[in-house]
Amino acid sequence: MDYKPLPVGVDIFEKIITRGYYFIDKTWMIKELIDKKADVNLVTRPRRFGKTLNLSMLQYFFEDARDSGGVRQDNSYLFEGLKIMEAGASYLAHMGQYPVINLTLKSAKQPSWEISFAMLRREIAREYHRHAFVLKDGRLTAQERQRFIRMRDEETSYAECADAVRFLSDVLMKIYGRKTIILIDEYDVPLEHAFMEGFYQETISFIRSLFESAFKTSASLEFAVITGCLRISKESIFTGMNNLNMISILNKNYDEYFGFTEEEVRKICRDYKLEQKYELIKTWYNGYIFGDVNIYNPWSLILFINDLKTNEDEFPSPYWANTSSNSIVRKLIEMADENTKLEIEALIEGKHIEKPIHEDITYDEIYKTMDNLWNFMFFTGYFRKVRDWMDSEDNYFAELAIPNREVKYIFRRKILGWFEEKVKQKDRSRLFQALLDTDPEALQEEIADLLMETISFNDAYESFYHGFLTGIFLGMKGYQVRSNREGGRGRSDLVIRPVTRRKPAFVLEFKVAGKFAELEKKAKEALDQIEQRQYVRELWEDGYQTVYRYGIAFFGKDCLVKLR
Which DSSP symbol is given to 361? Predict the structure, then answer.
């Protein structure tokens, strides 16, 4: 059976329709925009949740599109059979009636302000190129024509560029006789990157000027939709804009239009004959709450369905984890105190944490408090809201949890890996010496100290500690560290052997205790296992005359070391 191709990485509405890609109909959003009549709409959602595609859809619906010669282009055929066509004549009367400016700021993610500004100017110039037919209209003054050409050819000053969207909006209103719709995608990408690279103030000053001129008391503005990942405080970028309608993941407006709903996911599974995979999909990619609606990650779901089309036995992958920016999340690890580590451990175990929620923050405030970092992670898709409430002083709180197995993977693998990198940067000479001195008490103390620097979780299995100890023993000068080596009648957890056979070698076996009181018993079991399965035989046969055996038991961040 032939299935429609899935739009992997395709975010242009016209291309999805004309090429016959599978499409989840979100066109009812158009009706809601017309009904609500907000002047400037700021929609914030996590990365890869369909923001760019929705803006493209809005452009193709509302725009009075023209070719290079100024001849009108009819795009109504793109919406045939879609929900918006059932909305009624009063809504369809808006189709193809407005000049539209559509900008994405993602290209401004550059290593310096000079390059970032050049890319912002180039992106604006593309819209001037797209509307260059207006130069043939005699209603433009000579001054307007000259400025338009400078913008098109990227020959403008900073000052002209800062007012470029407003100027284009005014020009289009003059030619079309209709107010302009402005769509801006990924408005916060240059801000986040500029903060990380050290030119935040230059970037925020320019974007503030660009937005103020375009949106604040503009007579040529019909309405605007701005999308991004994080809601930036009005004081930093939307100064004095009383016409701004904030639509975050907490807002019930437009809650079903970004990401896939339960019903939509079930339909996808039916359409691709993958109903048997629904529960697996649910555990991996479900769990986001936008407003009151339960939402699936659309990026990951589409990629997984696409993989399943080729191989029905394909395992789920953390697709979103590999595309999302983790730079600020990594800062959480660097700043983590003992309370933060305990909270991360609780989240990995499936528990909930309570945090104050505040939406208006700036990038230069994110690192000032741990609460700001938690807020950043919540609004960018790392947590879901379990419940929320206001305290007696009108402070807003939410109970947060990891939404699904995909995000849990990030915590178990990426975040845990970053903690382990942090541990490896510490001086481990005392650890190495305790091993070589066959001093189990000192070794136990050193391992316990290093465990305090990372995170663990109550459902931790031996491989967690296995990976942790393998990592901290790597780097011993003159020694090879090998894990799960074949030897005797099984596999020893860790073998540390010197390059010269004149020095002793070490075999380490690990056990995880179910409770603290079992540490002694489990350490002894580890030693007994080394003997019973003859893990040292290979070392003896290879010429090592002295082999020390360590049995190590773990319970959370406690450990007990026994030597034989």
Answer: B
Amino acid at 197: E
pLDDT of residue 326: 65
Distance, CA of 380 to CA of 531 (rounded, Å):
51
- The torsion of the CA quartet 446, 452, 457, 463, rounded to 10 degrees, works out to -30
Contact status, residue 43 vs residue 258, Cβ threshold 8 Å? yes
pLDDT tens-digit series, residues 508-562: 999 999 899 999 999 999 999 999 999 999 899 999 999 999 999 998 889 999 9
Q: Quote the CA–CA distance of 331 and 272 in Å, as a whole number.
A: 41
Determine how many CB atoms are found less than 10 A away from the CB of residue 115. Answer: 12
Tell me how far apart the alpha carbons of residues 148 and 128 are, in angstroms, rounded to a whole number. 7
Residue 322 exposure: Cα atoms within 13 Å on the Cβ side: 6
Nearest to 530 by CA among 496, 490, 470, 482: 490
Quote the tokens at residue 129.
């190129």
461 pLDDT band (50/70/90 cuts)? low
Q: Which two tokens stand for residue 244?
A: 């701004």
Q: Can you give the pLDDT at residue 432?
A: 95
142-152 helix and 113-130 helix, angle to the nearest 10 degrees: 120
> Which helix (H) or strand (E) element contains residue 175?
helix 164-176
- Using an 8 Å Cβ cutoff, are 381 and 324 in contact? yes
Amino acid making up residue 324: S
Domain boundaries, the chain: 17-63+74-79+95-240, 260-317, 327-412, 426-563
Contacts of 19 (CB under 8 A, 6+ apart): 5, 10
- 8 A C-beta contact, residue 104 and residue 186: yes
Strand partners, 42: 226, 246
Pairing of strands 479-487, 490-498: antiparallel
For residue 205, the model assigns a pLDDT of 93
- Number of C-alpha atoms within 13 angstroms, CB side, residue 157? 2
Q: Return left, alpha or beta for 369; rule: phi > 0 is left, psi -120 to 50 is alpha, else beta.
A: beta
Domain 17-63+74-79+95-240 sits in CATH 3.40.50 = yes
- For residue 13, pLDDT over 80 is answered with yes
Q: Is the pLDDT of residue 185 over 90?
A: yes
Is the pLDDT assigned to residue 483 strictly greater than 90?
A: no
For the sheet with 293-296, list strands across it. Answer: 260-261, 293-296, 288-290
- List of residues 6+ apart from 71 with CB closer than 8 A: none
What distance in Å separates the CA atoms of residue 184 and residue 435, rounded to the nearest whole number?
A: 59
Q: 167-206 burial, b if ≥16 CB within 10 A, otherwise e? A: bbbbbbbbbbeebbbbbbbbbbbbbbbbbeeebbeebbeb
Q: Is the pTM of this model over 0.85?
A: yes
- Report the amino acid identity of residue 224: A
